[in-house]
Amino acid sequence: MNQKSSFVAVVGEPNAGKSTLVNLIVGEKVSIVSNKIQTTRRQVRGITSSDNLQIVFIDTPGFCKTNTPLERAIVSNFRSSYKDADILLLIIDATSKYYASSLNFIEKIKTRENQILAVAINKVDIAKKENILKIAQTLSTYDNIKEIFMISALKNDGVDSIKEFFKNAASEGPWLYDANQTTDLNMKLRLAEITREMIFMKLEKELPYNIYVESELFRNAEKKARIYQSIIVMKDSQKGIVIGKDAAMIKNIKNAAIEDMKNLLKKKIELKLFVKVKEKWTEKKAHLQNAGIVD
Fold first, then answer.
1. Model confidence over 118-141: pLDDT tens digits?
2. Which of 46, 115, 215, 256 has the highest local Cβ count within 10 Å?
3. What is the pTM of this model?
4. What is the helix (H) or strand (E) element at residue 279, kind and residue range?
């Protein structure tokens, strides 16, 4: 049986459900999930392999502006992430009335004859029917959309149809990853992303956007993993917020991160977190590299 493969770039507005869908299809959390924008800052590849088919999903940063160095780096990651994909899967949030960036994207790629465009209208389980219908009617006016799906990624509803579509659209070609590999992220970066996800969950307002996590030590012994991580903030006042009164906040972050790390590594976790101030880190390439945002 000849091997088949396909690269699928999953694109869309922030919070449309891109990472949730990728994690669901891959069967493992390879991309962190949050209801805050700019959660995904770089392209993350999730890989699923079965029988003779391997699909590589590229979870991309959401559409965003380019006002800051960080946002410019994120947009650069987005643009590079979808240009060589075989299939573009655009996710639109059915609960939102604002999807102009998605329509602009559809217009922008009209000339890409070598790429297949499909659209998934997500969150149909909680969206108003009139909103779903309006989005579907608008999408029907574009002749470059190959298929439109109605799904709920959170409830795994309608996703089987997308899987079947990918299977039929795949072409013969060698696999680029081992059959048991689920992501291209190295373990130190995956562990850093786990902690960053917990920071997003625990902290409110805009503080998380000014934070990144760096795994400075990772020793993976047979029964226990030792992990030292630095949480980088931009101001002393932010450091206090992350630590919290009587160190309560950083303890909450640590405990939540340990649980996810246990699930990933299947062993005991020793995690130490340090909070460091690096002013204007978003403007410095070295820090953007440490954060995994640029190469």
1. 999 999 999 999 999 999 999 999
2. 46
3. 0.86
4. none
